[in-house]
Amino acid sequence: MTCRTRAGQLVAPGRMECVEVPVEPLRDGDVRVRTRYASICGTDLHVVKYGVETDPSDWAPGYPGHEGVGQVVESRTDGFAPGDVVLVVPPLGESRCYAEWQRVRASSTIRLDAPQAPLEQLLMAQQLGTVLFAAHRYPYDVTGRTVAVIGQGSAGMFWTWWCKRAGAARVIVGDRSPTRLAASTGFGSDVRVDVRVDDLTEVVMDLTDGEGADFVVEAVGRREALLQSVRMCRAEGRVFWFGLPDTTEPVPIDFAQFLHRKLTAVTTYGAQGEPGLASFRRALEHVRRGDVDVRPLLSHVVPVEEIDRAFELADTCEDGVLKVSVAF
Fold it and tell me: Taking phi first (over 0 means left), then psi (-120 to 50 degrees means alpha), and beta for anything else, what does residue 83 get?
């Protein structure tokens, strides 16, 4: 087995580089995975591009990648053996998915017995699993109701899919990328708003006769979107703040409107700590069965040597980007 690994590493705020470094020694309970693909999450963008919830002491090779798929090459635990294909879903503090030969706790992996879909498609189950976890943690009956989803990155599209599958009568989505808006049709969106041209709040209010959406999901994590989410929700409705904020500074909110509309707002994270990684397993089954077609999300696959370019693509959404994955 190799003693060194290629890895993407955060070397300065906003800049990733491909480096070659020694592999980390295994501990009891660890497996070593040879990564095939790792995907860039919105959380990764906020860590790398905006410095949110990170410190240079965290910048180990492979960080902050936490969506990975690959093959076990060494194991220090029962239940995993060399050759096992696994989905890797570590918590952010232990994330090394941008390393070709990564050390990971066995408890943060799911063995993919006889994969029934290409690995790059099964990788999408990580993001879907976080949405399923959140929806299960704070359930809300959307049957026959109007839903608004702010942002149509992979998280926003999976929220769109889940809400439509759960019975929403109408799902209104907004994004600044025409490519993402077009792709969201396949995930169940009914109304698509290019927020560079139209105001999403105004569209939602117009379509609901001034009442607002019953359920609003903020899946971007931008300050302006957090504020907007309150303004487009109907009285006694539910707001789900799902996106990691793009700042550690306090974010303004129209509390008077929140109060007088008697809104409920929830947020959560931590699917990686769920017993048995249950939501990720459910997500894998959805992908395997074809309940959700994740192929449109596989828009860009970039070699690890060009990881800084991969982050630029993911951040700017240029060149028709839906989701960017890194290949090894």
Answer: left
